[in-house]
Structure formats: structure tokens, C-alpha cells
Recover the amino acids of this structure.
């Protein structure tokens, strides 16, 4: 029940900020619940499967999914997830390097959120492309491959990397970016979670409870968006993520804060 409740909180915050619940769950499992880092990663990416499925169904109904881009990202991202998952098995034996990689990943998150908070950006630039994500197939394929590798290694990828990539690099409308991200991320999360489940790096019960809580919480968080100054929330959590990233990076050098 604690895991379900925390998943609910992660979903609300993730839905409110548009970053997904994985960015909340991973550091919490590692620092608050004292999971081994590989198990924290594996449990997080397994929980995200439920969230992605739930979110994707909702966005399909709202016609917020670009199916052509989804297919491209799913294939390239799936290949990337295989490569990232194989790299993960090597990095399991290198906790210092794994901490450093995750710390730098969270540093990116914090920098983006602090920037948007300071600029008071509640949204992001986009163009009207009639329900499509602009850009050539090769660019989308590269984005999918890179995010897939990242997902396989650190268990992050959907709202954390795909959505800003679609919006900032391809100038996608926000709602199409979110819907397409959720739909295309399912394949990456399934492959990444499968590797980690086989490797014994998943607390399956915790993953199911976290995923169920996050799926419910994300719906609540999304409803709070129009009522909340999101730039203020982004600035606050950007600073929190900065602290999280420093904890990961310093832990790579054996320093605990």
C-alpha cells in the first residue's frame, strides 16, 4: 500500500509537470526505500509499462497519436533498448559509472525545468501540423535510437526524453508529442523491463503497485495543470532534481550527502 500511495504521488507530480512518473520513482526507490540501484532501475521501468499503456489508450481516444512516428520510434527505440539493456548488464558491476550516468541524466532534467521555471514557461514552442510530428524519418529514427539506449541503461525515457525531443527538436504540438511518446515508449519499456526481469533486477510486486498508483495519479495531475502555475512547480522540482543529480554524481565518487 505504501508503494501504491507513492506511485499515486509520483503520478500526480509527473502528470502536473509533464515528465512522467519514472523521474520521481527512480530516486525515491534508491534513496528513500534503499533499493540496490539496478533493482531500482528495473522496478521503475517495469512500473512505467502500466503508466504508458494507460496513458496511450487515453491519447488514442483523443486522437493525439501520430501513428507513423510511433512506428518509427518503436522500431528504432526497440533496437536502442536492446543495446542499452546489454550495456546495463555490464554497468551493474560498475556502480560508480552507473551512478554517474544517472546523475548526468537528472542534471539535464533539472536544468531544463529550472530554465523553464525562471522564464515562466508553462508550455513549449510548437507548430500546428494537423496531428503530425514534423521532421524527416532519419531524425525521428536517431531520436528513437538514442532514447532507447538511455531507457535500457537508466530506465528513463518517455516524458523525460521523448516529449522534449519531439517539442524542441521537431517542433511538435505538445499534445501530439505527449500522446505519441506514450504510444511509442511501450515497446522500449517492454524490452528494457524484460531484460531486467530475466536478470533478476525487478521487484515485481512493487512495480505493479507503483505502476497502478502512477496511472491513477497521472490522470489527477493532468487535471491540476490548468489550476496551477506550472512554472513555479517546475522551478521548485528543478531545484529538487538538481539535488538528486548531485547525490547520484557524488555517490559515484563515494561521497554521500
Amino acid at each position: 500500500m505504501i508503494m501504491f500511495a507513492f506511485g499515486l504521488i509520483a503520478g500526480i507530480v509527473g502528470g502536473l509537470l509533464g515528465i512522467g512518473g519514472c523521474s520521481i520513482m527512480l530516486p525515491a526507490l534508491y534513496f528513500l526505500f534503499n533499493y540496490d540501484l539496478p533493482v531500482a532501475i528495473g522496478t521503475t521501468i517495469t512500473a512505467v509499462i502500466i503508466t504508458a499503456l494507460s496513458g496511450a489508450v487515453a491519447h488514442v481516444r483523443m486522437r493525439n497519436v501520430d501513428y507513423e512516428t510511433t512506428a518509427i520510434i518503436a522500431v528504432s527505440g526497440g533496437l536502442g533498448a536492446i543495446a542499452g539493456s546489454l550495456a546495463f548488464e555490464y554497468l551493474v558491476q560498475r556502480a560508480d559509472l552507473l551512478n554517474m550516468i544517472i546523475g548526468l541524466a537528472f542534471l539535464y532534467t533539472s536544468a531544463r525545468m529550472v530554465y523553464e521555471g525562471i522564464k515562466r514557461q508553462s508550455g513549449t514552442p510548437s507548430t500546428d501540423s494537423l496531428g503530425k510530428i514534423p521532421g524527416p524519418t532519419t531524425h525521428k529514427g536517431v531520436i528513437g535510437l538514442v532514447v532507447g539506449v538511455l531507457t535500457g541503461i537508466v530506465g528513463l525515457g518517455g516524458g523525460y526524453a521523448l516529449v522534449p525531443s519531439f517539442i524542441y527538436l521537431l517542433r511538435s504540438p505538445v499534445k501530439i508529442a505527449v500522446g505519441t511518446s506514450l504510444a511509442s515508449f511501450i515497446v522500449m519499456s517492454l524490452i528494457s523491463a524484460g531484460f531486467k526481469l530475466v536478470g533478476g533486477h525487478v521487484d515485481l510486486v512493487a512495480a505493479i503497485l507503483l505502476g497502478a498508483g502512477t496511472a491513477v495519479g497521472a490522470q489527477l495531475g493532468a487535471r491540476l495543470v490548468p489550476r496551477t502555475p506550472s512554472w513555479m512547480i517546475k522551478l521548485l522540482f528543478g531545484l529538487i532534481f538538481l539535488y538528486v543529480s548531485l547525490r547520484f554524481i557524488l555517490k559515484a565518487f563515494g561521497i554521500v550527502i
